[in-house]
Amino acid sequence: MLSLSGVDLGYGTGTICRSIDLSVGAGELVCLLGRNGVGKTTLLRGLIGILPCLAGQIIFDEAEITTLPDHLRARRGIAYVPQGRMVFSKLTVQENLLSGTLIGTGKLGSIPGHTFDYFPVLKSRLKQAAGTLSGGEQQMLALARALAGRPRLLLLDEPSEGIQPSIVQEIAQILNRIRIEQGLAMLLVEQNLKFACSIADRGYVIEKGRIVASGEREALLQDHIVREHLTFPSH
Description:
- Helix content is 36%, strand content 27%.
- With 235 residues, it is an alpha/beta fold.
- The protein folds into two domains: 1-77 and 154-167 and 185-235, Rossmann fold (3-Layer(aba) Sandwich); 85-151, no CATH class.
- Helix 8 (165-182) links the parallel strand 7 (153-157) and strand 8.
């Protein structure tokens, strides 16, 4: 579904990510682990087209998208849930969800019927301003908004950040269910090893803009190299 080969990314003339080789298969959940400031968010911004690819090649669904503009990547089925959720705080929950339907086609559509199966709490909050939701509810809204565009690849930037442990567990269950039921490919960026490995099939570790380790879920939990390059949250 997604393949990066020798990819460099950065800001202006500064290169942050170097020689990145990474892949995500159809229906696979892959995690990218690393501390703050090591290039995780930069990589996601490069994948959605906000940052230019300075070198290398990005393939999505057997087509090269290395130089494709961000809105066309979204039309092809790549959705992004940014760090910090970034919901439209003054719009209602319903309006936020409707805005997500624009992602895939550029036209306003209907909220997918399965949305409230995955996120039942949002159904009772439809007329409520998104900014008045709790942090966990806002994260669920950000996820539901991205899914409203019916993507084939979901990019998630630290969805466990700043959320209480019980909600983190609930989000893990929801993501796993979506992946299984919809066959959706996911790339999950995280610092929380426990959360990431509870749902990921396999993963990569990034340090100073380079991939320094990779492996199946069990290997990530045991590998001393992974532990050397991660900071564990209290939960």
